[in-house]
Specification:
six-stranded mixed β-sheet, 13 helices, 58% helix
Length: 303
């Protein structure tokens, strides 16, 4: 067995399978876009470096980084799709899609690849984003949240990780730490993006962002929520619910995250500092919009 296959097998062994449900996109569309972006990058690379202006060289480096993010996201999606875990239809789509569409409209100008939301199956409420614009929402999160504002806040937070390239940056740092191991595997054949994607699959449950990164995603997420019209206080209300929850019931999306009260304080400070943006939103949880989905909603898997 090759070195890459051995490492890949060990990483995948730690991954609990996700079941995905597409909202408003298709694998063919994603692949076509990736091919187009790769072609553009190759065309830019074909120009001799000495003939490029400094701005062209910087733009080319940024383009390569962005293309790699798309490749990483597509590799993760392809790995999960190959396992036959994509859900073809579910009533949960109807509940998630309006919120996801509003967030996409508000956040898209901040990121140069289209956001795509997928519904996944897991027992622990969670949500996570991968490079290239994919945002994954665990179906049990829809059962956990009490209001639309809480769900919107969670999704806006995850979108913000993509806007800030947090996942790609984190995997880049981890790659440098394990440079020798990864270098040996890359020499065996797979692309760097492919290897990072395989590593990412094994880390989706515990990405371990720093407190600064999480706090920045909270603040940007609240900005995105305000743009959508969903009350950004939803994130505060969610963190308050987590504070009062049984420690054994705390959702995984906060298991490795900063202290809830610190996040609440930072958000409230951000709201006070920007009254023109947040002043119109009520801080009263009673003003929230109740959210509920059908119990044990059926999920049809795509094979």
């Amino acid at each position: 067995m090759s070195a890459f296959k051995t490492i890949r097998s060990l990483l995948l062994h730690t991954y609990t399978a996700f079941c995905l449900a597409i909202i408003g996109c298709s694998p063919n569309q994603t692949a076509t876009q990736e091919q187009k972006q790769q072609g553009q990058a190759q065309q830019a690379q074909s120009q001799p470096a000495q003939n490029r202006t400094p701005n062209q060289q910087v733009d080319n480096q940024q383009s390569q980084a962005q293309d790699e993010e798309v490749q990483m996201g597509q590799e993760v999606f392809s790995e999960l799709r190959a396992k036959g875990e994509i859900i073809e239809s579910s009533p949960l789509y109807d509940q998630l899609k309006p919120i996801a569409d509003a967030i996409t409209q508000a956040a898209q100008p901040r990121y140069n690849h289209p956001f795509k939301f997928y519904l996944v199956h897991e027992t622990q409420p969670n949500a996570f984003a991968t490079p290239g614009g994919n945002v994954y929402v665990v179906d049990s999160l829809l059962y956990f949240v009490k209001t639309k504002e809480q769900l919107a806040g969670t999704l806006c937070h995850e979108v913000s990780h993509t806007i800030h390239h947090d996942t790609a940056d984190l995997m880049e740092k981890r790659e440098k730490i394990k440079e020798r191991e990864i270098g040996a595997a890359v020499l065996m054949g797979p692309t760097r993006a492919h290897f990072l994607a395989i590593a990412l699959i094994g880390k989706l449950h515990s990405l371990g962002y720093s407190r600064d990164v999480e706090s920045r995603a909270d603040l940007t997420g609240s900005d995105v929520c305000a743009q959508t019209g969903y009350n950004p206080w939803g994130l505060v209300w969610l963190f308050e619910d987590f504070k009062s929850a049984n420690p054994n019931e705390i959702p995984q999306l906060l298991s490795d995250h900063p202290d809830d009260q610190n996040r609440i304080n930072a958000l409230e400070h951000h709201f006070r500092q920007n009254p023109s943006v947040f002043g119109k939103f009520s801080s009263d949880p009673k003003s929230a919009t109740p959210f509920a989905v059908p119990k044990n909603a059926p999920e049809v898997f795509l094979h």
